[in-house]
Amino acid sequence: MSRLASLTAATLLVASCGSTPKPPRWRVLIYIAADNDLAPAATRNLEELTTIAPDGVSVGVQVDQRPHRFLGRELAGDAQRLWLKPDGRGWQSQPLDEPDSASPETLRGFLQWGADVLPGEDTVLVLWGHGVSDDALLPDESPAGALSLSQLSGALFPVDVVALDVCAMQTLATARAMPPSVSLLVGSQSARHPLGWPLHDLLVELQRRPDASDLEVAGWFVRSTEVRGGAHTTSVVDPSEVAPLDEALTALLSAADALDEPARRALADRLYAITPTSRAADLRDLGAVLDVLAPLDPSAAVLARARYDVAVPERRSSPEYADATGISVSASRLQQAGLTSPEYRRRAVAVSIAPRVSLVPPE
Known about the structure:
The protein has 12 helices and 17 strands.
């Protein structure tokens, strides 16, 4: 039985890093939606997390997992909350009835519990799971569903840093969905390592630097992405500063929509030649898109570029994504202006002629 599976409502006694508990500056809330194929990775991550109990940090975890195999052992799916207060008692846990992790009510209930039970002045929220598309994340298999960006927006409490430990959700749409109560958003434009961030290291960092600013804590996520290895791109976005980027993109796409059909097709071919930050979600780097569209409305493009470094104060990528600028935009946003990819046009033609082709052999 794994360390995680053995947790019960009783206290898990883990030695504290210090003998005198300190009033916590930081509250870390970790919401793990692993009722899917990420269940083994969630177990590994939580076993790492619960090996330490730093002073001066409050931690709350809610995890939902399906049955899975881990290190040769068959583990039952379970759902529970784990928490660590700076009171010297170590990690504690409580089992939960099967939750719907894709429900905004479930997420909001966890955040309310964290605010009520765990002391802390500032809050980091880690959302751990899958990115589903350009507008949904944290899928759950039982019941089947995923959390939409609008549902996420409605569920969030005031949070200093929201860290998306999911694939390819650092998009313009995600940033615009953040309510004013969210100060900074951290996430990836591309696929992520299945284990996600080394969250046990985050707790050590917050103990070591309790006076770190919101931006410094967000920057930890950017710098720590490479610890797991593999191709990656991670950025910090200030949601309150992305409106000028969105407005510039809207102005440029409006100008593109006014072009004649041959000019739109030529422009679309250039846009879809940009290497996707995520092929699965059909995402392109926003900075690269703005560069291609810039001749249509130079003043809008200049405004966007002037605000980009304010909206994206920190970013880091592996060589595979060396040109990534920190925010992606979905192909669906481009298609609203009639900028349709060549592949999409070919599929449309194939669909249009399909009914005319008989699959029944002649008699």
